[in-house]
Every structure is written in structure tokens, then in C-alpha cells.
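Page 47, continued from p. 46.
Same chain as before, 128 aa.
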Amino acid sequence: MYAKILEINSASYFMYKTNPAILVISAQGTVPTSGWTDGQLSPYIYVTPPKDGIQDFDFIAKPPTGIVLQVLTPIEADWRATMPKWLKGFRIHASSGSKTWKFGEQKPVEESLVIRGGEVPWPVYAAE
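Result:
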């Protein structure tokens, strides 16, 4: 069973310039104890695209079972999919609230992005 994480700390994205374009989102957040695993961005499924062009995600993870440390712990999740033409940004939800990123409003950051198993050597985009 999965549950929403406590808080969203940051997110970044990049797009593969393929046809169709591929969008990769990487998010970092906080969970309330040790032992949380398998962080995921779970996209909302829409019958029709949202009018604002924002794709919503729940940032979820598997909560621990048994004894845990009562310490705020970082967690990460990635999501990758073909980018729909209507998409203008994304919103990530946690139990303490949500944050929204719109494409074109973020500035490039210089550090590389590590996506499970490999480093991406070009700039990614992050919220200010």
C-alpha cells in the first residue's frame, strides 16, 4: 500500500527532443520517518485534458512497517512519458500541499541530473 509523502522540496524536468517529445520529471521530497521506499510520481488520469494544461501527480511511496526512526528523511521519484500536446506544466501533490511548475518559467541549472542508473550531462530545469 502506498501513501502520499509529507512534503515536496523540489522538482526538475527535461525533454527529449524526439518526435513525439519525451518528458522526464524528477522530484525530491520529505517523508516523516525512516523506512519509506519506492518513491513514485503517480499521474492523475483525465477523461479530457485539463483546461489549464497542468498534469497533476501524487508523490507517493511505500510507508515502513515495524520500528522506524522519527526523523525527516529525503526521498526521490522520477516519471517519464510521451509529452501530450496540451501539456503546459505539472503539479505535484504531497500530504502537506502541492507545488506547480509551468514550462518556460524555470531557469536552467548547471548541475547534472541523476536518473536511476545514469547521469544526464545537459542542463535541466528547476523551479526558483
